[in-house]
Amino acid sequence: MAKVKTLADLRKMKSELQSKIQLRENAENPESVVQIRVGMATSGIASGAKEVYHYFTEEMAKRNINGLTTQVGDMGYCYAEPTVEVLVPGKDPIVFGYVDVKKADQIIEKYIKQGELLDGIIPPNYQNINE
Amino acid sequence: MSEYKMHMMVCGGTGCRASESDTIVEKMKKELEYRNLDEDVQVVITGCFGFCEKGPIVKMLPDNTFYTEVKPDNVTEIIDEHIIKGRKVQSLLYVDPNKGQAEPDSKHMDFYKKQIRIALRNCGFINPEVVDEYIAADGYEALGKVLADYTPEQTIDIIKQSGLRGRGGGGFPTGLKWQFAAQNEADKKYVVCNADEGDPGAFMDRSILEGDPHSVLEAMAICGYTMGSDEGIIYIRAEYPLAIERLHIAIKQAREYGLLGKNILGTGFDFDITLRYGAGAFVCGEETALIHSMEGLRGEPTVKPPFPAESGYNGKPTNVNNVETFANIPAIILKGAEWFSAIGTEKSKGTKVFALAGKINNVGLIEVPMGTTLREVIFEIGGGIKDGKKFKAVQTGGPSGGCLTEKHLDTPIDFDNLLAAGSMMGSGGMIVMDEDDCMVAMAKFYLEFTVEESCGKCAPCRIGNKRLHETLDKITEGKGTLHDLELLKNMSNVIKDTSLCGLGQTSPNPVLSMLEHFYDEFLGHVSDHKCEAGQCKSLLKYNIIEEECVGCTACARVCPVGCISGEKKEVHIIDQSICIKCGACMDKCKFNAIELI
Amino acid sequence: MIKLTIDNKVVEVEKGTTIFHAAKKLNIEIPILCYMNLEHLDIENKPGGCRICVVEVEGRRNLAPSCSTKADDGMVVRTNTMRVINARRTVMEFILSDHPKECLTCSKSGHCDLQDMAQKLGVREIPNETTCEMSSYRLDTSPSIIRNLDKCIMCRRCETMCNEVQTVGALSAINRGFEAAVGTAFEMNLEASTCTYCGQCVAVCPTAALTEVDHTPQVIRAIADPTKTVVVQTAPAVRAALGEEFGMDAGTLVTGEMVTALRGLGFDHVFDTDFAADLTIMEEGTELLGRLNAHLAGDKDVKLPILTSCCPGWVNFFETQFPDMKDIPSTARSPQQMFGPIAKTYFANKLGIKREDMVVVSIMPCLAKKYEAQRDEFKVDGNPDVDFSISTRELAHLIKQANMDLTTLEKSEFDQPMGESTGAGVIFGATGGVIEAAARTAYEVHTGKTLEKVDLKQLRGMEGIRAGSVDFDGLEVKIGIAHGLGNARKLLNDIREGKSHFHAIEIMACPGGCIGGGGQPLHHGDSEILQKRAAALYREDAGKPIRKSHENPAIKELYETFLGEPCGELSHELLHTHYFDRKRKRDIED
User: Fold this and answer.
1) Considering A81, A131, C153, C476, which has the largest number of Cβ atoms within 10 A of its Cβ?
2) Chains B/C: 3 or more C-beta pairs closer than 8 A?
């Protein structure tokens, strides 16, 4: 191991290492990052939720968005599966229905990056999952 | 290398390791590799999550799924269900006994809701054996910052302003202690970390050292900088092999990075740390006794002054702090004194780690802001009393503390409030008692510990505590008198008033506080010869209910001392003068004809 | 200077003074038990362990031990509030509850600090006495010292003496909690330990946890036996301290009264170890001159400095701790062991009795002498040269048992010939005395001139390590003196490292020399007593008509009619010895 010679070296090292535990930091403070919750009950998986889940995990990282993609249980909107809940810090949560890879791309580019609303939002008579 | 999509945090603390958490890790790694998932899922051995009641703990990230009591056999299930199919393994989720429902993740658990983790910030979050993870989590940045930006005086000022007080029990302001050590000029000075955790039931220091050893090393170096010391020594009990191992690894890694050793971060500051093993005597937690033990002398205290800051290890100025105290330091430096002092109460800042034990649902390690009430700790975080029993008292501060009762439940916990209530913070042990616990027996239990652990140097502690214990024993045996209660009080007061060190000065606290809060119970033992909790065997009586006894002779046959007599098909009688109260007859009787009165 | 208030009185003391000493200035005597201060010897024991001396200090949460708490400016102290008195008494009850109540038969009864303190504090009962468990240990008996740890109160005085003062390291605190006591490592027998039997532990023990082996019953039986001729010798230091046991002032010389008492006890011949001391000078002095002259002549095999060998505690010390240097001390036996063989040969011949029919008793200020007397090399066919060695304290007991009061006895003279002595023999009892006596004789033998100034005051004093020189007519003889084994160790280390420039060194195991021996009346921590005893010996020396050993007519006659010459063949057989490596003592099972 090379010696860490200065404080600047240490900070540089830290910024390089930080990505390794970014996921843990985000998990610890989910409300401070973009959260994507993919409904992954049996029916969700059957309709392709798994593919969507993997797409989000990979693409969010690729596009340098500090986010957290998790799997959740049935959201109660089986008719619109796969469903994905997106929580952007400072905004109300939104649930998208019929999400496929293409739709996922739009969600990232338009809603998450630019704050534009998209089609396919499930009406707001839902309850936030797990509460 | 691609980033992992999932982190599987497996507790590698002593408790969880004892229930095979290391096998879980091994098996998990093997299975993941087999399924080609080892690049997606990272298995991380971490420090303690605190929820020791239900270990081994496996926490899945990023969704914070909290699996409890995981066995090596559950590994494939977790991979197939959770990792591959994305479904939580329901049977491994924690079920809140009060709500009766499974909690989907740690964020929803009452156990974690009110906790703020500063000293334990990295426990369960990083792999303690990988220095890179510590650095990624801001590790050694506080040391770097102090060396680059602050003078020793400024650093001490930050610690003083933060209001941090010693977490080992004394509650002495840490900044002030550092200042004293800094002010004494000498050619050599020492920083000592007191890792001789001795309170029965307390294991926060061990958990910190196992889960985040670098934070203690970093803090010791910071302390060394402020007082002009280049040598740190960790005095750790040899019964903590895992903590010792992790410290060895951490010290080695820190040296390799040059974060310990000569010319740290190019600033010209030298500091290195070694370990010294203690044999696990409670009294060696007292700083002068600890220093004598380090010097190879008998571990017994000496009169203060001189304080170690003046003449400590090898006669040189020495600063002794406890593990938890040190663990707070890097966070204070990085986040600022104001941030820290905003947490807690007026005179007790920050958080405190408590070890919950006894008749409580969630036995484990928690960290809460100073000022949290006992009710919150016991009934919310701790999940209340086991088996729905009634809360009776809680002992804080271990054998040096006192008991607190129902009326103290809403008292905010801090150094001064606990003292005012007749107890103390101590190192943070909390033992919860329920209606089945006899307070005389409890007091006796604690005295047994102090009698065993007294070094024997001063007369009141050496002999007085023994006499206290004998008197309590006499009372639990049903031979106590009213006069004995007065004796207990006088002896206790004198032992407190005259003992040489903190051990004897606090050892009568359990007796005094239990006498104060449960005087009637003591009175019941000596005047009515009754133990309401039913714990004092000598005061119990096994009795055969005439109406129920069918004369089957089963009880007479099982009695080991032959004290039950009676003809077949006739009512049996227990000779109370011979009965040893083993309870075998009651267990044997099929007709519920034997009662305990 | 700082000012403080004690019991409403203001006192001014130097910074660093303890509360106890500040109170003393106001004539307030705070009771102490474990504390011990031998000021002139710079020995202090203050573990703060007994907690009897606690006082109330305003603003302090708990009581403060006055022996080890320094006075502060403006401090307000109360030594006698009911809180303090109750605490003291309760602590004393604790201590007594774990102490055998056998005062009636205890050897320390009447001289016991614990007994005195219990009396002073007015303890009349011990709560729940019958149910109090007592800590108990096995009894350990050695040739000199008995350890009865049941009576140990953990004052640690013995530990201070054994470790800090003597650096012997035989005794230290063992066990913990209720079982704690001061004992040997691994609870081995004292005999197997590094103990030198110097007896300093016994001298400071407040109770009877450490006592000497009592040989008075054997002495009584020997005197009562009509077939035995019982000869007694008394060491120089005894006469300067025995009076204290009878209430006389420290430093009162009771030589004549003691002789009367010994005769009264029925000893057949009352002799003086001073005679043997003069004999020692003849032998040791001759050896010194021999080595010195050889050294000056350039003989590289000759070792200097020469070390004295009169002190058995010191002999034990170098045999166990410095066995590699065992050829440096003089081979001359101690005065006790020179007296024995002369009595059992020369004097027995004169009387015409057999060796077996003579019993030699020595009165010594020392406990190591008991061990020395029973060493195998000092026996002939199993018959010891000195049969029994009893301490000054034991002698006092004997005299009292015989209904004699030393203060009212007439003076009388020692018997001849072995009662004849010089001033040189008398000063053996004080530190520096042996070497001064040796120098007086060596000077005259070496120079052939008369030493005019007999008092070699440069060799006297109470400092632990002293250096002085004597001008041998142009040859400066450099002399070192050490008393207390810790000081001896320093000089020995110097010799080992080749740093010592002395020609001769006197070493005494006990602080102060034999006057402070482990068998002397207890000084209870008052070191002024030691100074007075030393002064008494120098007084006796000054008053003697003959003050140089070689001028002792009885010694002259001994050489003329029996021994021949100093360091001659017979001398070597009877008056010299050899030393052993005792680094690894045999563990003696109990």
Assistant:
1) C153
2) yes
The whole-number pLDDT of residue B509 equals 94
Confidence of residue C588 (pLDDT cuts 50, 70, 90): very low
At residue B391, what are phi and psi to the nearest 5 degrees? -65, 135
Establish if B400 touches chain C: CB-CB under 8 angstroms: no
Q: Cα–Cα distances in Å, from B5 out to A14, B39, B301?
A: 20, 8, 54
Q: Which residues form the domain of A74?
A: 30-114
How many other β-carbons are positioned within 10 Å of the β-carbon of residue C561? 10
Q: Per residue in B259-300, pLDDT tens?
A: 999 999 999 999 999 999 998 888 988 999 999 999 999 999
pLDDT, mean of residues C281-309: 90
Tokens of C217: 């019953």
User: Which of B445, B187, B424 minimizes the C-alpha distance to B317?
Assistant: B187
The percentage of residues in chain C with a pLDDT greater than 70, rounded to a whole number, is: 99
Amino acid, single-letter form, for residue C499: K
Subunits in contact with chain C (3 or more CB pairs closer than 8 Å) = B
Q: Which chains border A (3 or more CB–CB pairs < 8 Å)? A: B
The residue of chain B nearest to residue C129, with distances taken between CA atoms, is B467
The total of structural domains in chain A comes to 1
Contact (CB, 8 A) for B555 and B572: yes
Tokens for C17? 């003074």
B304 inside 8 A of chain C by CB: no
- Compute the distance between CA of residue C20 and CA of residue C28 in angstroms, rounded to an integer: 9
Mean pLDDT, all residues of chain B:
93
How long, in residues, is chain C?
Answer: 590
Report phi then psi at B344, rounded to 5: 105, -165
**Separation between Cα atoms, residue B299 and residue B291, nearest integer Å:** 8
Phi, psi of C427 (to 5 degrees): -75, 0
Q: Nearest Cα to C330, choosing from C289, C369, C387, C366? A: C289
Please list every residue in chain A whose beta carbon sits closer than 8 Å to the beta carbon of residue B6.
23
Please list the residues that pair with B595 across neighbouring strands.
B543
**To the nearest whole percent, how much of chain B has pLDDT over 70?**
100
High-pLDDT (> 90) share of chain C, %? 91
Give yes or no for a contact between C476 and C469, defined as CB atoms under 8 angstroms apart.
yes
Q: Has residue B88 got a pLDDT over 90?
A: no
DSSP state of B99: T
Joined tokens for residue B191: 């920083």
User: What SS3 class is residue C156?
Assistant: coil
CA B509 – CA B527 distance, rounded (Å): 24
Q: Which residue matches tokens 């040899």?
A: B238
* B457–C173 C-beta distance less than 8 A: yes
Whether A74 shows a pLDDT value over 80: the answer reads no
The pTM assigned to this predicted structure is 0.89
- The highest-confidence range among A74-78, B323-327, B422-426, by mean pLDDT, is B323-327
Residue C179 C-alpha, separation from nearest chain B C-alpha, in angstroms: 7
According to DSSP, the β-strands at B429-434 and B573-574 are: unpaired
Residue C590: band (very low, low, confident or very high) from pLDDT cuts 50, 70, 90: very low
d(C-alpha C11, C-alpha C1), whole Å = 10
Across B89-98, B243-252, C374-383, least confident range:
B89-98
The CATH number given to whatever domain includes residue A37 is 3.40.30.10
Cα–Cα distance, C385 to C361 (Å, whole number): 10
Domains of chain B with CATH codes: 6-108 (3.40.30.10), 131-341 (3.40.50.11540), 351-434 (3.10.20.600), 439-528 (1.20.1440.230), 541-596 (3.30.70.20)
pLDDT in tens, C542-578: 999 999 999 999 999 999 999 999 999 999 999 999 9
Strands across the sheet containing C54-57: C9-13, C2-6, C76-78, C54-57, C64-65
